[in-house]
Each structure stands twice: as C-alpha cells, then as structure tokens.
Write a sequence for this structure.
C-alpha cells in the first residue's frame, strides 16, 4: 500500500504517501521546549502580568493588571517627575518680630514656595504659603492668611505678609505687617520663614 488512506475512499488530493507523512513528522518538535515549556499543562493565574522568570521561562509576576493600568497615560519617566516635585521638608530661613523685622531670602530661583508661620505670645499661630512665581519684581506685594487651627478666612484671625522681590539680586524680603487675633486686635509676636 503506497498511501496511508485508500485511494478508492478519499480524494487523492487529501492523501499523503507514507514518505510524506514521515517527512512532515520528522520536521515537528517532539515536545514544547524553550520559554513556553512551563505553561503547556495548566492555565496561569488570571489578571497578572506575564514575565520571564530567572530561568527564562514564562511566568506570572506579582503585579496585577489593575496596578499595570495605573501607568496608563504616563508620558515620561515617573522617577524624574517625582524628583521634580517639592521636597517633604521645608528649608528654614530665619525668624523675626512682627511689624519690625524683615527676613531676606537669597537665591529664590532654587525654591517654589515661601512658607510663613506667625505666632503670638499665647502660642497661637497662623500660616501662609506663597508661590514665588506670582510675586512681581521691584514691588511690595501683600498676602493675607486667615487660616488658624482650622479657622477660615474672615474669622478675625488674620496676618498680613508683605513680600518684596528684588530683580537685580535674585532675592526676596519678607515682613509681617500685622497679626490679628480675636476681634481684630493687633498682636505682636514672631514669624518664621521657610522655603520649599
């Protein structure tokens, strides 16, 4: 018999000779080898990202597809973006007396925000954050803070902070003109300047 299937029952166009079958089988791989050899018998755990393990085999990582999707929309290196954000700890510049003292901040191009905390003799405090890029050159600008231990603006607990940006020297001068607490009564005290 020259054919594996009888010519009288099957069209000769679908019949292979024994030599052809042997040749085709010889060209096949006896078993799956390489990276895929670890996933031939069982399914992988669903919804985990694939990886190659230390042996170069296909495996699942510890990262879910949900976590991978958090990267959707990222357009550049994440670490670089994080490094460009403000530091967690502000840099202390100095302290001065309310209405009489002025604090100089040099090299303002190194910073993004001024953080001013004002306290009175009763240790009550108000804070204000001022973005440096909104301050004009060669002019005093005034910023009012009304935040104090959760108190909102307009609660008669306010501080008036004056800032002057000197264009020629790349510096800032900070002065607290007034600090009011309780029924708009002006108090003395000190203020503390940080930069971020």
């Amino acid at each position: 018999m020259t054919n594996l299937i009888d010519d009288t029952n099957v069209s000769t166009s679908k019949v292979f000779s024994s030599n052809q079958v042997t040749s085709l089988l010889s060209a096949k791989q006896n078993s799956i080898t390489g990276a895929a050899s670890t996933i031939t018998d069982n399914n992988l755990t669903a919804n985990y990202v694939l990886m190659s393990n230390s042996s170069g085999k296909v495996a699942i990582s510890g990262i879910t597809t949900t976590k991978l999707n958090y990267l959707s929309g990222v357009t550049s290196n994440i670490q670089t973006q994080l490094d460009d954000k403000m530091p967690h700890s502000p840099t202390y510049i100095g302290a001065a007396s309310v209405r009489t003292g002025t604090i100089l901040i040099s090299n303002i191009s190194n910073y993004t925000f001024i953080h001013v905390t004002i306290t009175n003799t009763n240790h009550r405090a108000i804070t204000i954050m001022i973005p440096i890029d909104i301050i004009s050159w060669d002019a005093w600008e005034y910023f009012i803070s009304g935040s104090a231990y959760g108190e909102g603006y307009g609660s008669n607990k306010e501080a008036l902070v004056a800032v002057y940006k000197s264009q020629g020297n790349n510096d800032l001068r900070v002065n607290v003109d007034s600090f009011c607490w309780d029924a708009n009564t002006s108090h003395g005290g000190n203020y503390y300047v940080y930069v971020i």
User: Anything to note?
Assistant: Confidence is low (pLDDT under 50) at residues 147-154.
